[in-house]
Design goal:
By secondary structure, the protein is α+β, with helices and mostly antiparallel strands. It contains two helices and four strands; from the N terminus they run E-H-E-E-H-E. Helix 1 packs across helix 2. The relative contact order is 0.32.
Length: about 80
């Protein structure tokens, strides 16, 4: 599944630094598909494919949790533009 991760960022530098380190430590079978921030750095959207939202949440919170408030959703890939179904 595609897990959509929507963050309100409180410390942009530490948030993205944590995610850059996290990229090399993805859980087995996970793939990072998208990482994008708003121009002002206050919001971020990431998409990671994995078999569990909870697994993605645990992973993401470990690396960036202290620097953002984040919500996690299963993306509707069937109705998305640009995501494989």
């Amino acid at each position: 599944m595609h897990v959509m991760i929507v963050s309100t960022v409180s410390d942009e530098g530490k948030f993205w630094s944590g995610l850059k380190k996290a990229h090399a430590k993805l859980p087995k079978g996970a793939k990072w598909k998208l990482a994008v921030a708003s121009k002002d750095g206050a919001k971020a959207v990431n998409i990671i494919t994995h078999d569990s939202i909870d697994g993605v949440r645990d992973f993401f919170e470990t690396h960036a949790g202290p620097y953002a408030t984040t919500e996690y959703f299963e993306a509707d890939a069937a109705n998305a533009v640009g995501l494989p179904r």
